């Protein structure tokens, strides 16, 4: 009778061990969403939704490459937990502002807080010359980029 008890205990413990190992905690949709958002976090125009391991991306990007990269990043956020990726991202190219009169007025407004710089607009390209403090160069660049010119040329700027 002891052999039967020993075998029963061994079988029971073996079955228990196998069931505990195979019942790994599943990654919740909220945790998976956080992982995917971190992976695609470089684009604030993209929203992430997760339901039962299916990731849905929506929002806008400017190029097909950007759309593809975001989908690949979402898939690789957690290869085991992501069942599939539904990509509803829309490509919306940036409209380039080439109206010289309108762009010139907007550039003058954007640079009014930078008295040591001079801005010229030629065929949609904004050229900046003069001096700018290190702490303010990024603000200047962002405000000019927001005007959607063909290019912002800061090569003539001296940073102090």
Automatic annotation (TrEMBL):
InterPro entries: BON_dom. Signal peptide: none annotated. Pfam families: BON. It comes from the Bacteria. This is BON domain-containing protein. Residues 24-93 form the BON domain.
């Amino acid at each position: 009778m002891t052999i039967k008890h020993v075998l029963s205990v061994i079988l029971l413990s073996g079955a228990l061990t196998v069931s505990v190992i195979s019942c790994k905690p599943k990654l919740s949709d909220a945790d998976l969403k956080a992982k995917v958002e971190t992976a695609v976090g470089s684009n604030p125009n993209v929203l992430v939704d997760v339901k039962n391991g299916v990731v849905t991306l929506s929002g806008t990007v400017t190029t097909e490459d950007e759309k593809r990269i975001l989908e690949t990043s979402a898939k690789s956020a957690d290869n085991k937990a992501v069942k599939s990726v539904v990509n509803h991202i829309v490509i919306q190219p940036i409209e380039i502002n080439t109206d010289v009169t309108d762009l010139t007025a907007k550039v003058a407004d954007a640079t009014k807080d930078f008295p040591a710089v001079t801005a010229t607009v030629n065929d949609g390209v904004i050229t900046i010359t003069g001096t700018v403090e290190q702490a303010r160069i990024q603000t200047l660049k962002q405000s000019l980029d927001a005007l959607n010119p063909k290019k912002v040329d800061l090569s003539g700027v001296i940073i102090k």
